Amino acid sequence: MSFFAVIMPAAGKSSRFRHTHYKKPFAPLAGKAVWLHAAEKFLKREDVKQLILCISPEDREYFDERFAANIAILGVQVVEGGKERADSIENALARVKSNIEYIAVHDAARPAIAETLIDQVFETAKQKKSAILATKVVGTLKKVNQAKQIESTQDRTSLWEAQTPQVFQKEILFKAYAQREGFKATDDAQLVERIGEQIAIVEGSIWNQKITTQADLKFAEYAINALPKPKADLFNHPFVDDQWNELL
């Protein structure tokens, strides 16, 4: 069995979420925080041996007060992020265990990821070394100028919208970050592209949307209820047992 680490960035400013009390990964959704919905999908897997959550230093006190029990029970590692998303991932990479073969990066604000999609993108990464979830662009795309006037209609034939998880052989992702040199990537696949690596696409789902505004929480709750029921009880999983043994 190949071993995976999962890195979940949650250190952003959530500027478009605009809530006075919490950022989007920590917002309540169907009885638990958004990031917990996402994390539990990975923690129940036998091939996931490590989950690292990146949070902002400014959120540390709030996070510890609210989620200390969850972190202890689930065995999640928490690292403080940096100014840019890639800085946060880089901090997490320094904590990846030596026995890990593949690294998956999944947005903490994507709570409605289906287990079947995780299966597919993990398996494709093992076969192709790098794989991401993405969906075909179906809308009509317009290029506009600064005055918000249409300049042209763009061909969408070969366009896909990237999602997460994005999964890479550990050595490939480490190499991509080693050659980053301050480049401001919008996702990890962009850094891997820069070093000339091929990345396979696995078709994702409309349900796997990233929460950006408070209105997105309603869609996310509907999506979570629409997903198939979990395969197994999280707390009977070997990963959780191992973390409890370490705590004891």
Provide the β-strand percentage band.
15-25%
Pattern of helices and strands? EEEHEHEHEHEEEEHHEHH
Euclidean distance between termini CA atoms? 27 Å
CATH superfamily: Spore Coat Polysaccharide Biosynthesis Protein SpsA, Chain A
The number of helices is 8
Which stretches of 5+ consecutive residues score pLDDT under 50? 243-248
How many independent structural domains?
Answer: 1
Under the CATH scheme, the architecture is Alpha-Beta Complex
The major pleated sheet works out as:
7 strands, mixed
User: Can you give the mean pLDDT?
Assistant: 89
The level of helicity is 25-40%
Helix-strand category: alpha/beta
Question: Going across the major beta sheet, what is the strand order?
Answer: 5-4-1-6-10-7-11
What overall geometry do the principal axes of the alpha carbons give?
globular
Structure write-up:
This protein is an alpha/beta fold. The chain has a single domain (4-238), classed as Spore Coat Polysaccharide Biosynthesis Protein SpsA, Chain A, CATH 3.90.550.10. Helices cover 34% and strands 23% of the residues. The two termini are 27 Å apart. The strands form three sheets. A seven-stranded mixed beta sheet has the order 5-4-1-6-10-7-11, sandwiched between helices. A two-stranded antiparallel ribbon has the order 2-3. Strands 8-9 form a two-stranded antiparallel ribbon. Helix 5 packs across helix 6.
Top keywords for this entry?
248 residues; alpha/beta; Spore Coat Polysaccharide Biosynthesis Protein SpsA, Chain A; 7-stranded mixed beta sheet; two-stranded antiparallel sheet; disordered C terminus
